[in-house]
Amino acid sequence: MTAAPDALCRHCLLPVGRRGFTRTVNGEGCQFCCYGCCIAHQVNSGSGDASEAAWFLVRLGMGSFLSMNIMLFSLLVYSGAFSGADRRVLPTIHLLLWGLATPAVLILGEPFLRETWSQARRGRLTSSALIVLGSLAAYAYSTLAVFHGGGHLYFDTASMVLMLFTLGRYLEAAGRARASRDLAPLLAAESELATVVEGVQEHRRPVREVRAGMLIRVKPGERIPVDGLIVEGRSHTDDAVITGESRQIAKAVGASVLAGSINLDGPLLIRSSGAGSDSRWAQICRSVRDALRQSSRTQRIADRLVGAFVPIVLALAGVTLVYWVQRLPLDQAMLTALSVLVVACPCAVGLAAPMAHSLGIGQLARHGCLVRSPGALEALACTPVIAFDKTGTLTLGRPHLVDLASDGVAEDEVLARLAALERHSEHGLARAIALAASARGLDPIAAEDVQIVAGRGLRGVVHGESVAAGSAALMRELGWVLPPALFERAELMAASGYSVVYVGWSENALVGRTRAALSFDDTPIPEARATIDALRGLGLRVMLLSGDHAGAAARVATTVGTDEWQADLLPEAKRAALDQYRARHGAVAMVGDGLNDGPGLAWADVGIAVGSATDLARESADLVLPVGGLWLLPWVVGRARAVRSTILANLAWAFGYNLVALTCAVLGLLQPILAAAVMAGSSLLVVLNSLRLERLPGPSYPSAPQLSAAAQAASDPQPREQGQRRELAWLKAES
Amino acid sequence: MTYYALLFIAGFAGSFHCIGMCGGFACALGADARGASATSVRHLLYNTGRLTTYCFLGGLAGGLGQAICTSLGSRSEPGAPLLSASLDAGQRALAVMTGLLMIVMALRFFGVRGWHRVKSGFGGSTLVISLRSLLGKRGYAAPLAFGVLNGFLPCPLVYAMVAQAASTFDVLSGCLTMAAFGLGTFPAMLAMGGLGRLLAPSWRQRGVRLAGGFILALGLVTFGRGVLPMMAGHGLHHLWHIA
């Protein structure tokens, strides 16, 4: 029986791939990617007397018993314990060895034989074919030697090779399962059960059946299954999977909780605010599952190499046999060929990339970062340039009032009228104005007859007087006077990158006059500077690609410390800029909020969306950071690099190990049993090397000093003042 | 023979240590419904399985010791379990290493923790849990398989003895070393299984100390063989008797 190739292995949660098969464990059909996972799963799931897992262990135990006895007697024979006077017992010993070896080979070799057979019927040769061929050849030769006399016996080789490979595969699977430990809750999420309260009764139901408005009970220590509001109880939650930051947050009645976070210390009753399968948590889980099913380029190359490896090794073993048989007795030549077969088993190569990937994806997911394909991690690791979108990514995307220049009127008066007008606007600046007005304690006043002048601003009537707010063009269109001093100050504001709004009104039904100019600014987010510094510390070039005008882009670029910036870019121009960087540096990653830079994210080699769960961003970004998770980026880059270097090290080890061992085997320097041990060792090495990724530290939010340094840089007026002076000189020269 | 007798006694004393984990298993293996003889067979099979693993480990360790010494250019004949033959450089180095290992192990029996418990991340704990599923199975294959796998469970006593086996530089002697030790654990383990009665904790404590003492003595002697090459077989024999 074979499994669907895109399913995930029951034990190690990696894709089962082409070698996968289905086995019934405890009456349940389970899919496994390899024999090792099958063993490990059966060993772990053993419970009750009737379990097949127990039967499996009995088989392993018996196999070990037999092969250990074979090994013992063989060792004694080799070490010369039966020489001299004891020589006549040798035939009996040989017969005994045969009696022990036959069941041992059958018991231990059966799974390998079965795999070889099922693959061979589909015209494929896998590495188990090598093991089967090797051990069966040794067994057959030795059996002939027992019954037709002469020659050495290699029953120990046959059984120990099988046992070592079984052991190697078990250890490998155990290691892989540990690597995917972070992923297990993610993959189980959809089938997780939630305690639904209906009246006085409580039912356990799958999360996907939970609808909005249902009451869910969550015990301390449990994962909150759906988004919702707390209706009863108080507790602390850990939202690391959603926000990336692992800390306890106090929650009481009325507070909202997010699916996926852990309820730490108190029982909660939650009213679900959406269907169980719509939460961000469910989306995270689905995308992780999708990501795991894909394989990266490195992995595909490695798989193709392994596919080509087996026939080559068979040929090599044949050549080795033919070569040595002319120089050595048949049995020794055969043993050499056998070592070649056994040592070339490319188990570790197939393991090199997926294990590191699943570790990386799992750890990122635990901090709320989604990786949509394993290839994205590798691509991010070798990207030398990161381009940022400005608004909403490096800045809060919420402008605030910076300066107000008035022409002899009170600031409060200006703000009050402006606020009255802007209440009718949806413009981004309207919020900033309302905030500024309420900060000064101004009471809202009513405006009538408000019209939006497209692309220019607004006009309306306040207290019976006509009021207008917008660009200088609007003022000119209205024919209102714009005092030169005010205009000069406003131009200065615009030159240093602020958005400028003119406000004017008529008095006593006369022609209106422009009374004030206000400048607005979008603040960089607090951790932007620390993040950019950290990225530059990682050797990356950081670019700013903004659709905003040059002044604003330049100021943000200086504040957060990017290497280069480009402004006034339309989406097509952003793509051209990305192409330019790609041509110059090889590859480029783009970070955006996914709202207005979807095309840019899709165009870059790695698109990183921050804080957006919108479908567009999920479609176009390869990596999605949680809301407010820009600070995680350096950690993500570091992690991606660690994953990539682990994969490369794994491949180097696996291939290097195989090649060196293969050379030794071809030259006849390696005993088959030692060869098998060497192979088990190489798998173990790859597993342990990958598990080193587990030890890397988690992300840490920029510390207070880092943030304050950034804030200082942001408020440092020095560069701006110089700029102003220069602009001023230029303006004077012009006039 | 003195040597093997000593190992047997070490095993016997050490089996009070085994009662902790393996004894629990032996108890859980329980009685066979088909009567006393079937029960005895069951326990005998379990212990045979354990002994097989020990012998295998011993043989392997001895073989490894032999291989290392041969590759280091040892000229003296292999197989010096009775401490009579003098050792060459390679064997001495190995003796020092295994001796130190045994001393460290022995100190652990007296409560001295030289290093943190070796983490058997994948393997040990998983195996223990899964082994429980074998206990209830009928038939004779299960107890044997159980014993075999049980033998691989991490145990400082076994490690110390394997180290001793490695310092014999011979397959047969290594195998016999472990066999003597394993047979030494038979009486207590069989009694545990048959009677299912736990010994008083104070007795267990004493047994564990005694086993630790034996291992310490063995370790010191092995170490001594490495660093005191001048001491001839006789002197060491003398030491043995004192120990």
Structural notes for this entry:
The complex is a heterodimer of chains A (735) and B (243). With 735 residues, chain A is α+β, with helices and mostly antiparallel strands. Chain A has 26 helices and 24 strands. In chain A, β20, α19 (550-560) and β21 form a beta-alpha-beta unit. In chain A, α3 runs antiparallel to α4 (127-148). Residues 714-735 of chain A have low confidence and may be disordered. With 243 residues, chain B is mostly helical. Helices cover 74% and strands 0% of the residues of chain B. In chain B, α1 (2-29) runs antiparallel to α8 (201-227) and α6 (156-166) runs antiparallel to α7 (171-195). Classes of the chains: A alpha+beta (735), B mainly alpha (243).
List keywords for this structure.
heterodimer, A: 735 residues, alpha+beta, Calcium-transporting ATPase, cytoplasmic transduction domain A, Rossmann fold, six-stranded antiparallel beta sheet, 24 strands, 17% strand, disordered C terminus, B: 243 residues, mainly alpha, 9 helices, 74% helix, globular
